Amino acid sequence: xxxxxxxxxxxxxxxxxxxxxxxxxxxxxxxxxxxxxxxxxxxxxxxxxxxxxxxxxxxxxxxxxxxxxxxxxxxxxxxxxxxxxxxxxxxxxxxxxxxxxxxxxxxxxxxxxxxxxxxxxxxxxxxxxxxxxxxxxxxxxxxxxxxxxxxxxxxxxxxxxxxxxxxxxxxxxxxxxxxxxxxxxxxxxxxxxxxxxxxxxxxxx
Length: 205
Fold this sequence. Notes:
Elements: H1 2-23, H2 27-42, H3 49-63, H4 66-74, H5 77-80, H6 83-105, E1 112-121, E2 124-133, E3 136-147, E4 150-158, E5 161-162, H7 163-178, H8 180-195
Antiparallel strand pairs: 1-2, 2-3, 3-4, 4-5
Helix pairs in contact: 2-3, 4-6, 4-7, 6-8, 7-8
């Protein structure tokens, strides 16, 4: 009887230890979930204009870690910025990326998304995907960081070009030549232009 009880307790303990690992989503699971949600919104003929953009925004902001993206984008300039400047940059950078990203995906015309391999190294991961439209295939890789029970995007690699590195290069040059306050002003101007249809989405701000 004692031996049976020990066996049962051991089995229960093993299940308790294994359950979180089994239930936890993988980086690819989280990316697929987000992309699927975006596609459902884009394919809904009843959703147009502002309501559609608001839904797209909610999905994007739930998966992107804009604070981490902001720190990596500014690089060495992050620590030299004041707390208020950091806060302003995160706000402007998230708004800018959202406007650029939504502007691109709203041009969706029934492309298909294929999911490739995922690579996990500790709290970091990369998920390979590709978008197929006609005879063209565009590789898009997502780099993610694990926070709590989920994986969140902190960089996007489009055709081997890192979004973060692209912005870091252009923003670093602006900071060196014109200063941090001017960078914030230029970012705000770009957001206004995107919202007013006066500028096209660009990778370098």
